[in-house]
Specification:
With 260 residues, the chain is an alpha+beta fold. It has helices at 12-20, 27-36, 40-49, 62-68, 70-76, 93-100, 102-105, 116-135, 183-192, 210-219, 229-234; strands at residues 2-4, 7-9, 51-52, 58-61, 83-85, 88-91, 142-143, 156-158, 165-171, 196-201, 224-227. Helices cover 39% and strands 16% of the residues.
Length: 260
């Protein structure tokens, strides 16, 4: 379905699901649900608690699959012949490609009010998550931690490195390198040095299909990676200016309130 003014309209893809899903044994609806992003969190969790075997199939103990991805596991069972659930969940490589690719891991837009900054941030974080997984020796060691806790001071954790790499992601529709760091992010960057890196994605369009845009941006050299913020500032590769000031009363007036 898509919204046109105040109307809901069935898309071509939706019409195909409605008329042909029974012929595919439920696969068309399963694919549509996976690609919608509605189960992005469960897809991410399932990938993180599973192993990929030599045939590129996903293998996960049954109890973990049902704990971390209960609805997604039910959807995957539509793929008869490619998915088997016994004492463990086994998913064939072609279906793994669907649940691990960028479009299925993007959370849905923030809601009817459309939060531009939130949706831009989600897209940038997703791109870095996928970028790190593709480069990793063990993709399961790459975790999108900001999906569970936004107070850590970074978005992605990559345990393929020792010590682990902490990654803060910045995304913009502009190609100019310009971003803000919170007090927490600033402190983490200085505390962990080269173990903390910032990924910058520029030229993002929220209207672009995510897979096409990911391929395009990585082809252009994104993400730009800034590792070791303190040394980069000292060498003038980056510059930073304070954008907020704490204002307090000074002297005696700080210790007394208003007089009656």
């Amino acid at each position: 379905m898509e919204v046109q003014d105040t109307w809901l309209k069935v898309t071509k893809a939706g019409l195909k699901v409605a008329t042909q899903d029974h012929q595919s044994g439920g696969r068309l609806l399963g694919l549509a649900l996976i690609r919608s992003g509605l189960f992005a969190s469960q897809a991410r969790s399932l990938l993180e608690v599973s192993e990929i075997d030599v045939s590129r199939s996903l293998v996960c103990p049954r109890d973990l699959a049902l704990t971390f991805a209960p609805q997604l596991t039910g959807i995957l069972r539509r793929f008869a012949g490619s998915v088997v659930l016994t004492d463990r969940l086994t998913v064939a490589a072609d279906v793994v490609a669907e649940i691990s690719d960028v479009w299925s891991l993007l959370p849905p837009t923030a809601g009817p009010d459309f939060d531009y900054r939130k949706d831009m941030g989600n897209r940038g974080e997703l791109y870095s998550y996928q970028y790190c997984r593709l480069a990793a020796d063990d993709p399961a060691k790459v975790r999108w931690v900001a999906r569970d806790d936004e107070t850590l001071g970074y978005d992605i954790e990559d345990a393929n490195f020792a010590p682990k790499r902490m990654i803060e992601v910045k995304a913009s529709g502009d190609k100019s390198v310009r971003f803000f760091l919170s007090r927490n992010e600033w402190g983490m960057a200085h505390r962990f040095g080269d173990c903390y890196e910032i990924h910058f994605w520029g030229g993002i369009s929220l209207k672009a299909p995510v897979k096409d845009e990911f391929d395009k941006l990585t082809g252009l050299g994104y993400p730009l990676i800034f590792r070791g913020l303190e040394s980069m500032l000292a060498s003038n590769q980056l510059s930073a200016v304070p954008t907020q000031y704490l204002v307090t009363r000074s002297g005696a007036s700080e210790r007394t309130g208003p007089t009656e």
